[in-house]
């Protein structure tokens, strides 16, 4: 099939450092090429892809040193180019929320839109009611709850290439890890408290957005004085295998309705179990007692650290391979594309939820 993938322009595809949506677009595009499809990727020029790249901006927005830039203008220019070339594709797969809705109404049935963020925000319901003909994909069943009325085609969990992270032969397992954004909803403060109460070192690899600088400075920096707490900053893929693979567990103590939580399957790919608060998509990603532990308060989180020896790291990796590889994700999308294009459906399951 001739498939267009339309990525956000905020990060490179895949991102050099932190970033979720663009990472998934990269892995999906490559996996679809491996399956024999003709894939065209609309993204910034610094993308690394096996697909045919259409560069619509010289570089991704976040790491562009230009002091003044317009993300709206950049995305509108990209959508204009996609619109100009729309006849070249059987399916156009958008990953830019609903920005494209006003421009592709005449071919909405040939589009697919994966929603990567939270959906309980004010104004969203009215917008999705205004454009009801666009087929949508959620990344967890929990994510779609605020918009149950919307035109859902399937739920497709994220996936990673099976070779991206390889579990170490002899993981040290001598520290706990926190990986993500340094923000109130990700609760790095909880991670620090869990580690302290359990008597374990904690290594924190996190991006600090400008919007979260005050939170980091006022709430987290004072907690970093403990010699057992190490802040290593923002890391990219090259460092994640070592950072996650040698941890005893990833702490994921979120305090918000997480749409998916990519870092959970990154840890699982390394064979590293996850101790996660039971919010958002967590129960759909973590097999409690197999790939990690789902907790609901500080006491059970601390107790879960003591239960880590009960888990088999080989089994954690096996769950990843069965449920969250890029190949599994691409096969699920492939079936939806065929349905949209009117081709005969295969035997692949459309959704994979826990």
Automatic annotation (TrEMBL):
InterPro entries associated with the record: Glyco_trans_1, Glyco_trans_4-like_N
Segments forming domain Glycosyltransferase subfamily 4-like N-terminal: 18-130
Residues of the Glycosyl transferase family domain: 174-298
Superkingdom classification of source: Bacteria
PANTHER family per record: BLL5217 PROTEIN, GLYCOSYLTRANSFERASE
Stated name of the protein: Glycosyltransferase family 4 protein
Taxonomic source organism: Coralloluteibacterium thermophilum
Organismal lineage: Bacteria, Pseudomonadati, Pseudomonadota, Gammaproteobacteria, Lysobacterales
